[in-house]
């Protein structure tokens, strides 16, 4: 099934073979692949991209930088990276890797945070993939996998300065909501929280505008 990606700057089509393989076409050429991270090499690439993501967050406004350094200092973040395979292991979670010309350029993951509730984390595409529809494709893969695994809803957060990410999530059906976990005072003005209901788990893929 090919889905039109209205978020990309140009005309892309996204083919959903299943939640574990998504292809992004441009002018009948496979531009991107979104795959399930399964091998040690895959997870090494995911960790590399997650470190790139942290470095990117450190380029934002001063308040966001302070939050990252307070809650994700390098030693704490390194431990999180070491635990990715366990924290996001199927069937309660999953990790996705975006490939462009065979090179890893983006990632995303989800985990279970409550009965029937999934949380999407660390959706990131680097400069090599921006403007290609990679963010849309990895989000589509994560959403469809959560649907297939029978979750009732998905929650996630993002930083307020990440306006393009906010537009993408809202366009895909997420709605803004209050914080769904306890947030330290220092971070309260820096984050936005989202939720998407998933009616009809196991339903056929449909277009998400």
Automatic annotation (TrEMBL):
<dbReference type="GO" id="GO:0016747">
    <property type="term" value="F:acyltransferase activity, transferring groups other than amino-acyl groups"/>
</dbReference>
<dbReference type="InterPro" id="IPR016181">
    <property type="entry name" value="Acyl_CoA_acyltransferase"/>
</dbReference>
<dbReference type="Pfam" id="PF00583">
    <property type="entry name" value="Acetyltransf_1"/>
</dbReference>
<keyword id="KW-0808">Transferase</keyword>
<dbReference type="InterPro" id="IPR000182">
    <property type="entry name" value="GNAT_dom"/>
</dbReference>
<dbReference type="InterPro" id="IPR052777">
    <property type="entry name" value="Acetyltransferase_Enz"/>
</dbReference>
<protein>
    <submittedName>
        <fullName>Acetyltransferase (GNAT) family protein</fullName>
    </submittedName>
</protein>
<feature type="domain" description="N-acetyltransferase">
    <location>
        <begin position="44"/>
        <end position="197"/>
    </location>
</feature>
